[in-house]
Amino acid sequence: MDSTPSPSSSSPYSLVSSALGRYIPRGGAAAAAGPADTQGDRATRQGVPDNPAAGPQDQILGVVNLDRDLRITGCNVDAPVFAGLDAVVGSPFVDLLPPGDVPTVTRRLRQVLSTGEAHVARIQRLRRADGSELVVSLSILPAAVPQEGLTVSLIAMARRLHLYAAETAIGTSLDIGETAQSLAESLLAWGDVAAVDLDFAVWTGEGVTGQPQGRIRLRRAALVPDRAWPDGYVTPGDDLPSDASRLLAQAVRRDDAPQAIVIPDREAVERVLGSPRVMRALVPGDRSAGVACIPLVLDGTPPVVLGVAEVWRRADCPFRDSELFDLQELVARTAHHVDLARQHQREHKQVLALQRRLLPRTGGDTIEIASVYQPATPDSAGVGGDWVNSFPLPDGRTALVVGDVVGHGLGAAATMGQLSMEARALLSAGLAPDEVLEHLDKTVTLLDDAESGLTAGYSALGSTCCIALYDPVSHRVALSSAGHLPPVLVSPDGHAGPLAVRPHPGLGAEFALREPFDVHMFGAPPGSLLALYTDGLVEDPAVSIDEGIGRLAETVSTVHPWDALQQAARHVVSALAPAHQRDDVSLLLARMIGYRKGDTATWRLPARDDAPARARAQVCALLRKWRTRDDTRDNVLLLVSELVTNAVRFATGPITVRLIRAGRGLLCEVGDTGNGRPRLRRGGLLDDGGRGLHIVHRLTTRWGVRWTDTGKVVWAEVAR
């Protein structure tokens, strides 16, 4: 073999090659290796020696230099473990690869050439001249400038090094698919094909038991190497046929104790698997004749089987006892990583379920709603406290809420859920947006006390929230913000821009920094589009936050009135969210529709004794115009009479009566300047007070009170 170093002394090839020269005898692999018996040669061919020594002749590092055409220009693979590799200068590097791996490795080599980014620690098989294969950890490094080409370092997978490297690699991800893939790649050192099949409950993150009930279901979670597979063969994401699942489960649970089993040759495989369908599903090819099945077991009483790892090998390379011991040791060491990924998957699903539960469902007759939530990363550590919500209030208005809780993970998700539900309850009770934010501010402060907040490692101080209430009759929006970015409003004529909202320090600010929450009123005529969002949508290190908000306004302004709103929301997020987002992204789009002018009527009456009669006359005429049923008309007239009488008796100033023809009923509102809250109480048989509210309660499907700057509004709904 040619050992000529590269001309560049600073190249990766030169650095590795010069280091190898200090440890490997210049006689080369043949001089150092000496004669070997059949058993020793087999151990070398598998790359997992039975008794690896610690001397210089057992070096495991080699290096090959390539030009831009992927031809070998120099190499240093003189260690005995690389004996038989024909790394000849001028020959293509792919000649060292099994044919099925050539496309994948070639793609990786070209990728490093084009990008200059190294590809590190790929488990790869290399062909020897005698047809045997050697498992190595292959890293592809770009050559140093001005030299062009690549340096490929090879690390033969000696037993202890491989076990250590495999366990380290498998524990680096909490994604169950990646964890299974890492395990399969590590197992490839002992065979031609490696697969990991998991119990379906493990794959979905559910709990597993020591004695599974009912039919066992296995799903293929990982398969290596990456190549084209025969028709009918089970690949990742596919469920194993029920017969195959049952056979594997029975095999590894002999005598009710999980055990590794070996089926040594194809004849035995056919006898055990039986049907041709199961053979096509499990046997990777004609060359793969023997298989070792190792259960993934969690220690316990009884032990819990998470799945089965399969290692397939050619008939001329039977499994030795020492290799089976290594396989069981590796799988035993890494089974708990699979279970950690399962638990993480379950928590991830729970957090996402909470997050999705808070997303708006539908709008209604007066407003159209669309929302998009996009986590920064696919695992639960990236699920944060972004939330948007929209819900109709009992008085006919619609609440639009967006918030951003500090942090990520379960702590942020739990706080997010608590704040969201509290905001909904307070808004449904009739509180104004600024009053709701005052309550949320206190809640965040209480959650951050020494007992439940800081000692738990999570703080929600500095969280933000924005609440908008849309009145479909007046076509106006009342908005309050606690440190949140300003919403963007698009008028019917297409003009778009952020609303002028006074900055606020956010929820849970220090006492000296606390400021009152303002209520901003602005018009939103039918056809207007309101966008509420979190900072992940507009923050970009390359531009200022104002420019990011401007880009959002420009993008939202392109949404046409006839566009499907959900599709438009996805388009906005895809156009603005960075490719490698660092924060969650949430967007809520609301298209204002409102009530038609003919479906509402408002009267202002003086607080005099004749007010109830005047209100009945006005309402009766309108109901006849609307062609309301007689029984409904009688109920509404009695309802209006009781509410107006109550307002005259207990309030001062003018009285406002408003009637709204909604989709499911008639909504009646009576406003006054009083601050007393009507309460339904149990009264005695002879008590005069409170009878009016009992009549209201009997006539309506629901009723309530909301507070205004000048007094209160009592509302009630009557079914049509």
Number of helices: 18
Strands, total number? 25
Low-pLDDT residue spans? 1-9, 21-58
Mean pLDDT: 78
Secondary structural class: alpha+beta
* Portion in strands: 15-25%
Q: Report the biggest beta sheet as strand number plus sense, adding barrel if it closes.
A: 5 strands, antiparallel
Q: Kindly provide the radius of gyration, computed on alpha-carbon positions and rounded to a whole number of angstroms.
A: 36 Å
Distance between the termini: 94 Å
As a percent range, the share of helical residues equals 25-40%
Strand order of the largest sheet: 2-1-5-4-3
What coarse outline follows from CA principal-axis ratios?
A: elongated
Could you explain the architecture of this structure?
With 720 residues, the chain is α+β, with helices and mostly antiparallel strands. It is 32% helix and 25% strand. The chain contains 18 helices and 25 strands. Strands 2-1-5-4-3 form a five-stranded antiparallel sheet, sandwiched between helices. A five-stranded antiparallel sheet has the order 7-6-10-9-8, sandwiched between helices. A hairpin with a 7-residue loop joins strand 4 and strand 5. Helix 11 packs parallel to helix 12 (410-428), helix 14 runs antiparallel to helix 15 (565-576) and helix 17 packs antiparallel against helix 18. It is elongated and about 110 Å long. The model is unreliable at 1-9 and 21-58 (pLDDT under 50).
